[in-house]
Design brief:
The chain is an alpha/beta fold. Helices cover 31% and strands 25% of the residues. It has 15 helices and 24 strands. Helix 1 packs parallel to helix 2 and helix 10 packs parallel to helix 12. The relative contact order is 0.15. The structure holds uridine-diphosphate-2(N-acetylglucosaminyl) butyric acid. Uridine-diphosphate-2(N-acetylglucosaminyl) butyric acid (EPU) binds next to helix 1, helix 5, helix 6 and helix 12.
Amino acid sequence: MSEKLKIKGGMTLKGEVSISGAKNAVLKLMAAAILAKGESKIYNVPELTDVQIMLNVLEELGVKTVYDKVNKTVSINAENIADITAKYELVSKMRASFIVLGALVSRCKEAIVALPGGCAIGERRVDFHIRGLEALGAKIKIENGYVHAKANKLKGADIYLDIPSVGATENLMLAAILADGATRIQNAAQEPEIVDLANFLNAMGADVSGAGTSEIIINGVKQEDLHPIEYATIPDRIEAGTYMAGIIATRGKGIIKNVMPSHLTFYNSKLIKMGAKIKLLEPTVIEVSCKQRLSAVNIVTQPYPGFPTDLQSLAMAMLTTADGVSIITESLYENRFMQVPELRRMGADIHQERNHALVRGVKKLTGANLKASDLRAGASLIIAALMAEGESIIESIHHIDRGYENFEEKFRNLGAQIIRFNDNDNISETLTQKGSYNEASI
Ligand code: EPU
């Protein structure tokens, strides 16, 4: 049943929100866990559709998994790996599952993993992953939509990535862990999620250095050097950036807990330029506020530590009502302005030309019927709907469930009037049960 959101805009967000574990880190840790024999435990795992898909991928490999949703802990027992195939049915649902390729070739010397294909936001090729594996000595065949990689013994190599791809860096790190000798990944991605993966692997007995810089060195170790571990993943910087956007866009004031401010340096500096105030209360707690209309800023998305592409749509939503003209340039993906037509339907004045968007701030947005096309475009529509006058309905919210744990409740705790329903629901009843939305307004 397709679920929708109903949001009444115009509320000022106030209060506290605690950030969950990072989706884009935890998915890779789950794949990395299969490198060691025995049971590893990962803490701080958010309850997301994408986490469930990765559990299914691992289960199909014969790995035993348990997700304790109360304690947000995933146990992964990779004592035995019975299968080396990640099927299209799962990989096509979530491209991040392609990460098992590196881990499987490392551990099992062979892997058959479906090619993910493009997705709504861009072509998203995996050629760097493949070329890097070949450089490590894997024989690769692409047949019937699958990558078949085989390597009796991978050998350390120097690999230069044309662009600092997050997924390629991670896949190649995993592949190199048990290789003979040293692997050097140059022009590596520097995202905090890469550092988290390196910390996880090192805790497991691997030898990875340089993560967080553009050159990562992996000295191969032996299978018997690796042991299962217990590890807590980092907080989700994109989730944190999303709630910050909601508070700032509604001229509110709120406290964000369990956040790593250093992971959001570039984003924060842009928010401050827009007119927001960000105060560090404790090392992992910040206070965000904004009293006045935001000012226009220009944004260019870049690999970390630049402005994150995953927060571009959120920034755009905020800038739709800013004072002045903002130019947003998306430099990572070909098609990551999917929110633009929806924002226009709310009264935003956005002119898009290829990967540039010119956003002329309008006085206000008005509520509308909207459709989420992908995860971050969906999140930006929530922010826009919170800012808007009147009510909005957002369809296709399964995209948002892929990356935001418990988001309606988190927004509601900040004072947002937001409710999930499906077409068969008696909305008034649902809203009254949730007790958060003025029935008279439906
Ligand atoms: N690219 C290639 N060839 C490759 C690999 C990448 O051309 O072999 C291109 C892609 O087409 C893309 C660019 O390089 O245009 C960057 O892609 P990258 O590999 O860095 O991205 P990813 O690993 O597929 C991760 C996140 C994305 C996030 C990007 C960039 C996960 C599961 N996904 O994707 O997150 O946008 O890094 O930071 O970690 C999201 O959470 O909404 C999301 C899309």
